Amino acid sequence: MIAADGQSPTDQIAGLIDSGSLSGWDLLIVLIVLILTWIGSRAGRRAAMRLLAKTDAVPYEVAYTCSRAVGYFIVLLGVGIALSVLGAQIQPVLAAVILIAVVAYFALRGVADNFGASLILQMRKPLRVGDWVETDDRWGAVTDMNARSVVLHTSDGKVIHVPNAQLLSDPLVIQPSDAPVRSEIEIRTTELGRIEEIATTAVTLATGADGVMATPAPDLVWVASTPDRMIGRIRIWHKSGASTAVGSHVVRAVGEGLGAAGLAASLTAPPPPPPLVPTPTL
């Protein structure tokens, strides 16, 4: 096969190499470089595969592709060194490789960022499957961790995929699955003359509600007062991810118990946001 300029591919390859200055030592060095390249390529692929296999978030297909990419890179590097020993002009080849690398970087930057972040998350292990996580106003239980994202399941059934890179760059609140969580229930009463009785009864009833931990013990703090009303917070501890169910149990138990004791109070779980009130005049 003859190229458009009249030269065959063999002649074109020969034109890249300065055959007049080659010696037996040069050929020996090229042979050694190629052998070392072959060995290094296989060793690099195996090392990359072993390293990525230790990371649970990296699927086998991704690890296999990355290990092959490492092997190809070592081969290209070795071929470039061999061509330079033979006196070939490899500047155009290097320019093309750099251009391809730049294009690949911008095209795969997001994928690479998330993949690198997944490796850091696996090595540092700040969170595990089952933990509750809050980031960027998203709150849910971790159900899966992969090379691209962390999958969260919210309490209302939604599935959220949070990119791994975002977990490293944004503030991250983690509630371990095996650690207790504190919740609050708002209590309001107009019986200002029976505040101590209401507080003692409410805490006793909250302690016996389903899902409430005995240690730390529940308590009640008063947080607001008006001439005709007192507002407080019943603070309870429970297992992670059970705030809604346990809050419901406490509201029912305390409400029914206070009613049976003839104490008037209203409860809300979780506490509503404070109302907007005008700034008092001093």
Give a quick summary of the entry.
With 282 residues, the chain is an alpha+beta fold. 48% of the residues lie in helices and 20% in strands. It has helices spanning 9-16, 24-53, 60-85, 91-107, 109-124, 164-169, 195-207, 243-260; strands at 132-135, 138-145, 149-153, 159-163, 173-175, 181-189, 219-226, 229-238, 266-268.
Walk me through this protein's architecture.
It is a single chain. The protein has 8 helices and 9 strands. The protein has 282 residues and is of the alpha+beta class. It comes from Occultella aeris. This is Miniconductance mechanosensitive channel MscM.
Strand elements, count = 9
What separation lies between the terminal Cα atoms?
A: 97 Å
β-strand percent reads 15-25%
Radius of gyration: 34 Å
What is the total domain count?
A: 3
Discrete helix count: 8
Would you tell me the structural class of the helices and strands? alpha+beta
Major β-sheet annotation: 5 strands, antiparallel
How do the strands of the widest beta sheet line up side by side? Answer: 4-3-2-1-5
What is the overall pLDDT average? 80
Helix content: 40-55%
Low-confidence stretches: none
Please tell me what the overall shape is: rod-shaped
What's the SSE pattern? HHHHHEEEEHEEHEEHE
